[in-house]
Amino acid sequence: MARVHHVKEILDALEALYGYEARPASDFRYEEPLDDLILTILSQNTNDRLRDIAYKNLRERYKSWEETANADLEELKEVIRIAGMSNAKPLRIQQVLADVRGRFGCYSLKSLREWKQPEVRGYLTSLPGIGSKTSAIVEVFDLDMPAFPVDTHITRLSKRFGWADEKEPPDKIQSRLEAKLPKERFRGAHLNFLAHGRGICGARTFSCAGCTLAPWCALGKKVSVHGAA
Ligand code: SF4
After folding, report:
1. Ligand 1: which of 14, 158, 163, 208 to mutate, judged by most atoms within 8 Å of the beta carbon?
2. How far apart are the first and last CA of the chain?
3. Is 130 found in the same domain as 49?
4. What's the pTM?
5. pLDDT tens digits, residue range 156-202?
6. Is residue 107 domain-resident?
């Protein structure tokens, strides 16, 4: 049974390694939350480099979200093809833009800053292709609301720390961690987890020797007993 243990020790150790909690929120904030929402759609099932190229292509080809919303779908597919899911993503982006325009009368999500957080999550997750992780990214980075997005890296690390059961899906883990971790640490801790997962604690390769998280990590303890990695 998963138990969220040694929270302070683990978050402190990650902060000592990567230091994202000390960085100002403005470093990661999009003035227009819709920009980050579209960027996050582009990031689904691809890496940051390809996501960023696709986003750059998109912003260079279309001067506004209105132009993107009204773009020829086949052309839009070509513009962002590098990000993969070349049928789903363009359609999803245009559907999201149409919904935002219909709801707010413009291509902006700035007014979400005046909403209560449960309503924000309810609205964003009602959009096509937007789940609780994507919503949480916009909430915590762009709307200054307490949310802890759980992606593939945080899912993996949570399982290694025993914070999640082996077959537990990310949205369930996210609900648990949002209830158990200190809200004021969400943003920086999320980024620290990502840095660790992308750096030394990958899915197939992990460098447990010398990892300061090993005392609280089931895999790290196993490896130190068996002397591998
Ligand atoms: S001890 Fe190994 S598996 Fe555990 S967090 Fe560190 S690198 Fe990852």
Report:
1. 208
2. 27
3. yes
4. 0.94
5. 999 999 999 999 999 999 999 999 999 999 999 999 999 999 999 99
6. yes
